[in-house]
Specification:
The protein is of the alpha+beta class. Helices cover 33% and strands 38% of the residues. The longest helix is centred in the N-terminal third of the chain and has 17 residues. The protein starts with a helix and ends in a 6-residue tail after the last strand. GO terms for molecular function: isomerase activity.
Length: 127
Amino acid sequence: MSMSTERHESVVARYLAVWNAGAEELDSAVADVFAEDGTYTDPIADVRGREELAAVITATHKQFPGFTFRLAGAVDGHHHVARFNWELTDGSDGPAPVVGFDVITLDDEGRIRSVYGFFDRVPSGAA
């Protein structure tokens, strides 16, 4: 494994921790991981800036209370780009109701500049 891949794995772990952060630590977690003008784009959201990012995460928590995001497979990264699969799960043994794939780009400080998200599986009526 290259040092570059380890760096990407670390950023992705911190990114997923942001999505799993509670309300009291969300703003500081977003500030730690995302560039100030970071963007997040998926099929249902297109936002810029830390405040809008936190709002999308908060809305997701309200839609899926008690669920957590987890990495599903390996992180693949090079230069300032990484891609990975994730699952949103309630911790049960059944299949995760939401599964997706994200591509992130990093700034020179190692913060996330942009996220491009794709949904592979969503519950009917969720997206």
